[in-house]
Write a structure and sequence with these properties.
This protein has 898 residues and is mainly α. The chain is built from 30 helices and no strands. Helix 7 packs parallel to helix 9, helix 21 (573-592) runs parallel beside helix 23 (635-660) and helix 23 packs antiparallel against helix 24. InterPro entries: DUF2339_TM, UCP035905_mem.
Length: 898
């Protein structure tokens, strides 16, 4: 192994020597080029005139010369300065500028290796050498524990002495230091790391030191590192802190003592935070926090029995961060006015996260919950005094919810307990005190966040700070109430929790009214909106807790309606957006479970849970959009209007599907009855939206009407004419006239005709004419299918078409065309007359293409005779009634002689 390292060192030395030779040759070539450029520019040695002028000037001023006699050395020094002063204008006069100074070349790869990396690696190697020597001595048993400890201490002292000696030698040198690695700092860092390891091993491994002695020695080493870093700079701080946090991994024991570990980490953290505070090294504070948090993870595997040392670790780190890191609090750096500082907030949030992990890993042990509560209270206190840590309040609220949500999800019925026994309807009896601790903690958290969030309003000129406080004040109590309800009441009906929700809504409402009457301050409108939202949210939860499952959808929809109404009484811009957000949440809720209450939707047609789950939200959104429209036509209004249309359409569709399929809304196929009802309902809703958009001018109503019309057209073309066509598939249509054909092919054309008149003159003519053409096709299809029903019975797809049937088709189409013509003449409707012309043209085509080839005997003759008579009658009607020519009056005859 030694020979291999020697070979590697030789190769590296050869490469470095070769690169150094090449770099020297390059620098020599550059110097030669610069000299050649100066000679070509005509640069000559400066003349001696400036020196003579200086002497003449001194002779002309005897008083000055007498007072300050110039020595030869001073004259020699002044001459070059004078030459430089005269050379500048001369160069400016001659038009030749002196070349600018050459930029300093950046250090190359080789220089970085030789001046920096080698030194850094060397220092790290020295530290690792000390660590591994201790480890090797432990494994091989070469030396006794006492000798090993002494040797480690001597090695640390040697490194520290070498670092101090090199530092002093550099300070004595008059040469300007080059940008190279700080060798004294590297050596000192290695010495402090070895000292940390030696003291820790003497205490934790060999038990040579009592806890008090170890604490004193580790504190001395930490303070020494702090003092040394003040002299040697960030290199020592970085390597020393890294080595200190890695030491417990390298110097380990079969029976770890977590109290000793966390005591050691607390001292290291204090030294690092102190150094970061004195030198204002933000990176050092962040690095220390990250290392301290990482050291929480591997020790969590020990289980609930080790809550004590873990709690000490997070409490010590939290206290040190509050004292030394948080800006504007105690000994922390100075803070900008009302500005949230990321490191100040992040340091507290990091240790809160550690406390959260301890709670979760210990299965919510009482000690862990108490420690977590203490840190949350400390976060509120620090953030109240130091606005720089306000963001930690939001993190604390989120972590509180995480703790209680995990507790609720992990809920065990055997652990349900209340301080005075179970309340009626709240759940079974308890056998453990865990719920008692959580209930007390929840009350403390809810009160702390709520009261602090309310009192924090108006204390800051930064709008973000009061908003963070109010958001935490609203979110935390609601989240805790939901978690307790899920754990204790198991999401069942619970009147006590409904009462708590009503009380919480009243508190939020009172806070909203009080804040509304205050003078305007930054962030106050958003905070008022948040408290108003909390009041509505608590009312929605009260409805959910008091009513059966599925009412959450209704409660949220009513909450959106209430928010829209409050936006009229209290014109807070955020309330409009909140109404839209709540509408979006309800939409997502039905996407998760369209039946609202699952299998409990019921089998009763119409009057089932779908009516309440979709009908009440639809009414709420229609009313909410009416309130919102009074203020403005903006994005929140359009969202609520879209939700109103969506729930109305879904209510109709879901009720149709539920009724037709016997309560099974998830049936894979749809029959003719369902498609027919959906087409009729869609056309009716499109007519309603067309009428409504005329009054409101809403783009949502406009687009909704178009989409519904398009859906009805697609459903009619694909469903009625193809997929569920009784002529193509064996479908039983029922009786003679009052049958399924009347619903599927007579209702839609009537509604489509009404829709075409509703859009006539308000949309493009082609749009209305297309709807009218679809109505005509469906009406003609109904006439045809009814005739086939008379000849073939309830299943239209069976049997052979006879001559009498073909003749009946022709006569029926002809009569249908005549009826349309009569309607067009009676009501002076050009559209009806054109439809009549289309039907009669189809009848003529049928007569010549089908009847002529299929009919025989009297049916063929009667078909053409009737068609001819009708055509003649139509021509007469057009000539005599519609386009009758008026007789021109005769011109008067001139009398003779006139």
């Amino acid at each position: 192994m030694l020979e291999f390292f020697s070979l590697v060192v030789a190769i590296v030395a050869l490469i470095i020597a070769r690169k150094t030779f090449n770099q020297t040759a390059t620098l020599r070539a550059r110097l030669d080029a610069i000299e050649a450029t100066a000679l070509q520019a005509g640069a000559a040695p400066p003349p001696l005139a400036p020196l003579q002028e200086v002497e003449q000037g001194l002779a002309a001023s005897p008083s000055v010369a007498a007072e300050q006699p110039a020595t030869a050395g001073e004259m020699e020094t002044a001459a070059p300065d004078a030459e430089a002063q005269d050379a500048a204008p001369t160069a400016a006069t001659d038009g030749t500028a002196t070349p600018p100074p050459l930029p300093q070349p950046q250090p190359g790869f080789e220089e970085r290796i030789g001046t920096r990396w080698v030194v850094w690696v060397g220092g790290l190697t020295l530290a690792l050498g000390g660590f591994f020597m201790v480890r090797y001595s432990i494994e091989a048993g070469l030396l006794g524990p006492g000798v090993r400890t002494i040797l480690g201490g001597l090695f640390a002292l040697a490194l520290l002495a070498a670092g101090e000696w090199t530092r002093r030698k550099e300070s004595v040198s008059a040469i300007e230091p080059l940008p190279i690695a700080n060798i004294p700092a590297i050596l000192t860092a290695a010495g402090t790391a070895v000292a940390f390891a030696t003291v820790y091993a003497a205490y934790a491994l060999y038990e040579f030191l009592a806890p008090a002695t170890a604490f004193i020695l580790l504190g001395m080493v930490a303070l020494g590192t702090l003092a040394a870093a003040l002299l040697h700079g960030p290199a020592l701080a970085g390597l020393g802190i890294a080595a200190a946090f890695v030491t417990p991994l390298l110097v380990s024991s079969d029976k770890p003592d977590y109290w000793a570990l966390y005591l050691y980490l607390a001292i290291v953290t204090a030294a690092a935070f102190g150094l970061a505070r004195i030198r204002l090294w933000r990176w050092l504070a962040v690095t220390t926090i990250a290392f301290a948090l990482i050291w929480t993870f591997p020790c969590l595997e020990c289980g609930p029995s080790m809550v004590g040392p873990h709690a000490f670790h997070v409490i010590a780190g939290f206290v040190l961060a509050a004292l030394l890191v948080v800006c504007g609090f105690m000994f922390g750096p100075a803070a900008d006015d009302d500005r949230i500082e990321p490191i100040s907030s992040g340091s507290l949030a990091a240790y809160l996260l550690g406390a959260t992990l301890i709670v979760l890993q210990s299965f919510h042990a009482d000690t862990a919950i108490i420690v977590f509560a203490i840190l949350v209270a400390g976060t509120l206190l620090v953030a109240w005094r130091a606005p720089s840590a306000t963001a930690a309040v939001g993190a604390a609220a989120a972590l509180v919810f995480v703790v209680f949500a995990e507790w609720a999800v992990r809920g065990n019925p055997d652990m349900l307990v209340l301080p005075g026994g179970p309340l009626p309807g709240i759940g079974p009896a308890a056998t453990d005190a865990s719920v008692t601790v959580h209930l007390i903690s929840a009350v403390i958290f809810a009160g702390g966040f709520g009261i602090a969030g309310f009192l924090a309003q108006g204390r800051s000129a930064n709008a973000v700070i009061p908003v963070v406080w109010s958001a935490a004040a609203v979110f935390t109590p609601l989240a805790l109430l939901i978690a307790l309800y899920a754990r204790i009441a198991h999401l069942d009906r619970s009147i006590p929790f409904a009462i708590l929700a009503v009380l919480l809504a009243a508190a939020y409402g009172a806070a909203t009214e009080i804040l509304t009457k205050r003078d305007h301050r930054p962030g106050l409108p958003i905070s008022i909106a948040l408290f108003a939202t909390g009041s509505l949210g608590a009312l929605a939860l009260a409805l959910t807790f008091a009513l059966e499952k599925g009412w959450l959808t209704i409660a949220l929809a009513l909450m959106s309606l209430g928010t829209a109404w409050i936006s009229l009484q209290r014109p807070i811009p955020f309330l409009r957006s909140l109404a839209a957000i709540l509408a979006g949440i309800v939409v997502l809720r039905i996407g998760y479970e369209p039946r609202i209450v699952g299998n409990a939707v019921g089998a009763t047609p119409v009057f089932n849970w779908l009516l309440w789950g979709y009908g009440i939200p639809a009414l709420s959104f229609w009313a909410g959009s009416h309130f919102l429209r009074r203020r403005a036509d903006d994005a929140p209004l359009r969202v609520v209007e879209s939700a109103a249309i969506l729930f109305t359409v879904l209510l109709v569709f879901m009720e149709i599907r539920h009724t037709v399929n016997g309560g099974d809304i998830y049936r894979a196929t749809a029959g003719l009855t369902e498609v027919a009802l959906q087409v009729c309902a869609t056309l009716a809703m499109a007519i309603g939206l067309e009428r409504l958009r005329i009054r409101t001018g809403s783009i949502v109503h406009n687009v909704g009407a178009i989409l519904l019309t398009a859906f009805a057209g697609i459903a009619a073309a694909a469903g009625l004419m193809v997929l569920e066509n009784p002529l193509l598939w064996p479908i039983d249509v029922g009786g003679a006239f009052f049958n399924l054909l009347l619903l599927a092919y007579a209702g839609p054309p009537v509604l489509a005709l009404l829709l075409s008149y509703a859009v006539a003159g308000r949309r493009a003519a082609s749009y209305a004419n297309t709807i009218a053409a679809a109505a005509l096709i469906l009406a003609l299809t109904y006439v045809t299918f009814e005739i086939r029903r008379l000849y073939h019975g309830p299943v239209l797809s069976r049997g052979v078409t006879t001559g009498a049937e073909q003749y009946t088709y022709s006569i029926a189409w002809l009569v249908f065309g005549v009826v349309l013509l009569g309607i067009g003449i009676l009501f002076n409707s050009q559209r009806a007359r054109l439809a009549s012309a289309v039907v009669i043209a189809l009848t003529i085509l049928k007569a010549f293409l089908i009847d002529m080839s299929t009919l025989t005997g009297v049916y063929r003759a009667l078909s053409f005779m009737c068609l001819g008579l009708v055509l003649v009658a139509i021509g007469w009607l057009y000539q005599r009634i519609l386009f009758r020519r008026q007789a021109l009056p005769a011109a008067p005859v001139a009398e003779p002689g006139a």
